[in-house]
Every structure is written in structure tokens, then in C-alpha cells.
Specification:
With 132 residues, the chain is mainly alpha-helical. The chain has a domain of 77 residues. It is 46% helix and 0% strand. The protein contains five helices and no strands. The model has no long low-confidence stretch (mean pLDDT 85).
């Protein structure tokens, strides 16, 4: 006996969007909803494709609100920054520029050491032991 076809409801659409927004894998969402992953993708494609975008936008708006309203305090700012770095693909970049004296070019010097060794010598490159 086969199961009845899945009928999406406003409740299941909300659940799928909520789970997808916070990064829950599709296979896990399917288990929670009680359907096959293929069925999940068939009926909830829009929610799966857009939930993370909406979540990132909401977190970014919250962070912007905190940054532009001094009365809002710092509550949640660290969490919002963490979210945007991990889920929103935000990143901090550090640029290191090495310069020489007074910001000029770095001066380099190469030294080539040529050592002449007498043919047949056994201690080439070693200090004279003085024992012979």
C-alpha cells in the first residue's frame, strides 16, 4: 500500500524555511518533516534555495541597525558578526606590505662564497685540525 502524496502546508513551508535558513542539511529536514529528500526538493525548492539568503539579509539588517543606532547597545552584535562571517561569506582581510627604510624598496644583498680546495684534500670545508 503506497503513501498518500505529500501536500505542502503553510506550516511545513515555514518549518522547511526555518531549518534551511540556519543551515540544517536537506536530508535532516526531510527526516524532520517525514518525507523523502527527493520529495522535499520537489515541493520546497523555493524555500531551500532562498532561506539562507533571507536569513543572511535579516542578520545583516540587524547588524546595520546596531551600527547605526547607538541606543541599541551591543547585545547580539558579536553573534551577528560571527553569523555573517560563517554563513554570509563576510571576511576580514589583512594586507601586509613589507617595505625598506622610509617606505622604500627592500634592499637585498647576495654573497657568493667560493672555496678553493686542493685536489686530494680530505677535509674540504672543515677547519684545519692541526694534527698532521
Amino acid at each position: 500500500m503506497s503513501r498518500a502524496p505529500h501536500e505542502p502546508t503553510a506550516k511545513t513551508r515555514g518549518l522547511v524555511e526555518g531549518y534551511a535558513a540556519c543551515g540544517t542539511p536537506e536530508a535532516d529536514i526531510a527526516v524532520i518533516i517525514g518525507i523523502d529528500p527527493k520529495t522535499l526538493r520537489k515541493y520546497y525548492r523555493d524555500e531551500l534555495d532562498t532561506a539562507h539568503i533571507r536569513a543572511n539579509a535579516k542578520v545583516a539588517q540587524s547588524l546595520f541597525s546596531h551600527a547605526t543606532n547607538p541606543a541599541s547597545g551591543m547585545k547580539g552584535v558579536t553573534a551577528a558578526i560571527f553569523w555573517m562571517k560563517t554563513r554570509g561569506r563576510w571576511k576580514e582581510t589583512t594586507v601586509v606590505e613589507n617595505t625598506g627604510k622610509d617606505g622604500g624598496a627592500i634592499e637585498t644583498q647576495q654573497t657568493v662564497l667560493i672555496e678553493f680546495v686542493e685536489p686530494g684534500a680530505t677535509n674540504a670545508g672543515e677547519p684545519d685540525a692541526g694534527g698532521e
